[in-house]
UniProtKB/TrEMBL annotation:
Example of a GO MF term: DNA binding
PROSITE patterns linked to this entry: HTH_CROC1
Lineage of producing organism: Bacteria, Pseudomonadati, Bacteroidota, Bacteroidia, Bacteroidales
Protein name per UniProt: Helix-turn-helix transcriptional regulator
Matching Gene3D superfamilies: lambda repressor-like DNA-binding domains (1.10.260.40)
Span of domain HTH cro/C1-type: 7-62
InterPro entries: Cro/C1-type_HTH, Lambda_DNA-bd_dom_sf
């Protein structure tokens, strides 16, 4: 998939665990894990907004487009 999710990188930079982030944005750790591993097919803007707010980042810090070879 050409969209790469860099959530794990931002979480490491902010020193926050998956469980802590999930609790702060009110989402299950399982659903957040699906997003973190890049297996999600979609993300709600409200979820993206909450993640950006907690991690103090921009959507472009979390999502990256890479052309397929």
């Amino acid at each position: 998939m050409p969209i790469v999710v860099n959530l794990d990188i931002m979480m490491a930079r902010r020193k926050i665990t998956l469980g802590e982030l999930a609790e702060k944005i009110d989402i299950t750790p399982a659903n957040l894990s699906i997003l973190k591993t890049g297996k999600a097919k979609a993300i709600r803007f409200s979820t993206l907004e909450a993640i950006c707010k907690v991690l103090d980042c921009q959507p472009g810090d979390l999502l990256e487009y890479r052309e397929e070879e």
